[in-house]
Please model this.
Amino acid sequence: MLAEVEIAEIIVVLVYLLVIVYLGIMGYLRTKSATDYLVAGRQVHPFVMAMSYGATFISTSAIVGFGGVAGLFGMSVLWLTVCNIFVGIFIAFVFLAPPARRMGHHLDAHTFPEFLGRRYESRFIQIFAGFIIFLFIPLYAAAVLIGGSVFVASVFEMPYPAALLLFSVIIAAYVIVGGLKGVMYSDALQGTIMFVGMFALLVFCYRFLGGVTEAHQKLSDLAPLAPANLQAIGHRGWTAMPKFGWGSPEYNLWWIVIGTITMGVGIGVLAQPQLVVRFMTVRSRRELNRAALVGGVFILVMTGVAFTVGSLSNAYFAENGPELTGRVVKVLDAEKNLALLQLMSQNEAGLWQDVEGKVAPVKLFGDVDQQVEVEGQTVALQKGRSISIVYAGGLADEIIPSYIISAMPKWFGLLFLLTLLSAAMSTLSSQFHTVGTSIGRDVYEQVTGQHGKSTTITRIGIVIGIIYAVVISYYQRESTFIARATAIFFGLCASAFLPAFVGGLFWKRMTRAGAISSMVVGFVITAFWLTFIKSQEAQTIGLSEKLFGRVSLLLDHPNWPVVDPLLVALPVSIVVAIGVSLFTQPPSKEHLDKCFRGR
Amino acid sequence: MLGIEDKGVLAAYLLCLFSTALCVVYGLINWNRGDEPVEPDDVKWIAKEKKVEEDL
Model:
């Protein structure tokens, strides 16, 4: 049996690698990237285009990071999927992409900062946006890198630092050897495998738990098992929204799930530098219309499934996870056999003793397993199974890898790993490409005035970006780091760029001064909020503690320390953009004609 | 409904499906609409983008 499994695994890996190599070679021999298709005037099949979009934008961050967050917080995270589909696909493809594509071509803009700079005829805007992207996109790249490394570490049972090193070397080699362009067919294949893999994961999960309604019901029944520290901030079970309100720590989780995860990431996607450039490589509006269809389904099956399965993994582990033994310290729900178990183990002499500091919420098997003597007292030993976060060692980022390895056949885990890694590679490539061009093309060329001579600086920027991301990935190993890092980058993009970007596309009265003020205000408020108000980030940065002796200036005012910077910075940035524009000189008619030709 | 009693979570679950349906219906209705002629700006943009890619 073991030999059969191993052969199956080897065949899966070999076939996958052969197909990827074949498609890569075909790609290099013939047409390669989206640009090549444009140059050749050829049409990309909408399926291929949408799948390659998907593989570029959905990566380990969404599946491993946010899937893990759903395992911890529950299905309320599905609000992010609603935003991903409605805002990230429908609004982006139908309303933003067509004018962005046209204006980008009219202005001959090839990066997002260049687009903003030319729209507002401002070198400052291009340099400022280039700097922000250069400084912060590695944080997002680190989130993707960690997602991949955690998975490698789980599947191959190796230490995380070794997995990170291995994955980073592969990424660096891939990027340096020339993998910066998305080879459309390889991307599409990765997208397709991810799609099929995620779909299979969902079907398996629902089938195992007895059907859709039964699975949700089982998860609902586990509500009392939610960890005490999460219940204290408003967790009411995995199929319920967190408690909503203001002014007490028991509402913190609502502000995290809706404020940071849903709004921060869901809205931030509109001002993603890589996404905007990708829109420009599309041939016509028709391709965008078609991609909206495939993209909507793709995102549902990616993030929707990741968040649903992440949540349901709790029900899976409570029925099928490794057995835990110990003594009941608190009954949580007698009828449903839910309790807090002080875990116990046998020492060398065969005597039972407490495992120090290990108390887990469990679903008990039922009857007392056996009575044992512990330090002269009779203790009833019971067995039970716990929830995902317990089996993931307290790290939310480990929940999805743990679930896949435990619930799915090993060959599926390997195939899934390969797909996730290659998806991470295409996302990372486009991120590092953006890092490089932002420092080379947007900052160096604009500051020195040496146009078209920034290739070396761009390359150096890419190398710095990779090292920077790897260093972050090595040091930041907190429970929900992937989701937090992604949310910071997305939120920052929204607050600093969204009013200038959307205003630039749709409002002719928007002025250079309006755009500059909104970008600076959006950035400064976000930076201030992360450094001095949002406690988790402020604690990591450490400046607030040093200067004022407290991790957040509003520590005594719940729920301010968990409010996402976007909720404050974006409204202010919008008001500033509109207000300043109305009181400053509008752009010249000639410039507007150039930007809005034909509209 | 569907084993989810909380209206907020149930709404999210159903809205995921509805938003996808919206994308699908929009895509089907506009499948052949929106073809645009290639303009000189487009050609110039593509040529430059290709050069930027190749330089790297």
